[in-house]
Every structure is written in C-alpha cells, then in structure tokens.
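agent> fetching stored inputs for the S-adenosylmethionine docking request
agent> found them:
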Amino acid sequence: MPRSKSNYRDGDAFTRMSKKAGYRSRASLKLKEILQKDLSVKKGMSVIDLGSFPGGWTQVVKEKVGEKGTVIGVDIQNIKEIEGTFFINKSISQLEDKDFKEFKEKIPFDLVLSDMAPNISGIREKDDAQIIYLVDNVLSVIDNFLTEDGSTLIKVFQGESLDYTTKALRDRFKTCKVCKPKASRSNSRETYIIGKGLRK
Ligand SMILES: C[S@@+](CC[C@H](N)C(=O)[O-])C[C@H]1O[C@@H](n2cnc3c(N)ncnc32)[C@H](O)[C@@H]1O
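agent> prediction call returned; pasting tokens
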C-alpha cells in the first residue's frame, strides 16, 4: 500500500527525533512510548533484546536498568558495541544454552523483548508463517529463561501472528495487552503484545 504524505511526515518526524536524542533507530521511540505507558523496566533488571540490530531498544533499556542491570542483544546482523551491554551475533533459532554460559548470574531474565522481523515478501501466508516461526523461538526463550512473574514484549503483525501470539501469551502470563505506539506508522501492520506475570 503506498504511504500517504502524512505518514511520510510522521515517519520523518520520529526519525529526526530519535536521531536528535542519539538513538540508533526510530524503533527506540516506540519502545520508549510503551515503557512510559504499559511496561515498567527498573534499575538492576536483566533483559534480553531479541532482534536488537542496530541497537535502539538496547540503548533505551540500558538507560532504564542502569549500571547494575544487564542487557543482552541478539541479532543475525552484527552491531557496533553499546557500552555496558552484551551482544550475541546469532539467529535466535541457533541459540544454545552455552551462549548464555557467561551470563549465568544474570539468568533467569526479568524481561524478554523481541522486535524481530523477517524479510517481508508481501505474500501474506508466507510472511505470517515466518513471523510465527520467530515467535515460537521467542516463546522457547520465555519458557526456558524468563523468571516467574517476569514480562515480555513481542512485535508481531496484524493477522495470524497476532492471534497466535495473543493466545500463546494468555496461556503463560497473568495479563496480556496489545498496543500500537504512535511512533509506529499507522499504515504498518506491526503491533506489539505485552505479557506480564509469567506463570511457571
Ligand atoms: C526492526 S529490526 C530491530 C530494531 C531494533 N529493535 C532497534 O531498536 O534498533 C528487526 C531485527 O530483527 C532481526 N532478525 C530477524 N530475524 C532474526 C533471527 N532469526 N534471529 C535474530 N534476529 C533476527 C533483523 O536482523 C533485524 O535487525
């Protein structure tokens, strides 16, 4: 769908704002908005940021968790180091227990973030299947490495992956909320789901 003029303007404004604030991506502003309204990240928390390249979410979360907190990014694309944070250059589907060996004291995590997105082909069924594949991998990280009562924030796309992920999070978390930050283009299918209070 072609973008309207106002959407270009919105996008540009958020891009300018994020650059001005020193963030590596405009995605950082989406996360900031969600953290202001719907999800709390406290000093000292341990967070894994799946699909972290180029690092905007990692920057925002590091500010929140402070010096004593831990942020570990994971991405297939290598990132330029962000001071005080860690990075694993791997696909989520290749993550193994040994990748977390050096972070033993930081696990279980308090929060699992995922802003991962596959290469969109435009073929809806194919794209939905790819997103659900990524979500299944995030669910595996949640099941294995998230603390009891911990939280998650996962990006999905309106349609099948939203329904699938909402059900999966309702089965696991005490509360589940769908949100669309203003910094997300109104004509984009991307949507975010928050799960709070993991039941073990
Ligand atoms: C929208 S970008 C993330 C932006 C990031 N949150 C930020 O604020 O800078 C989505 C990322 O998901 C990553 N990704 C896609 N598939 C992945 C996979 N299988 N494992 C890890 N990362 C993946 C992509 O490489 C891409 O960098």
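agent> quick read of the result: The pocket of S-adenosylmethionine is lined by residues 24-25, 27-28, 51-57, 74-77, 91-93, 115-118, 134 (CB under 6 Å).
agent> awaiting further instructions
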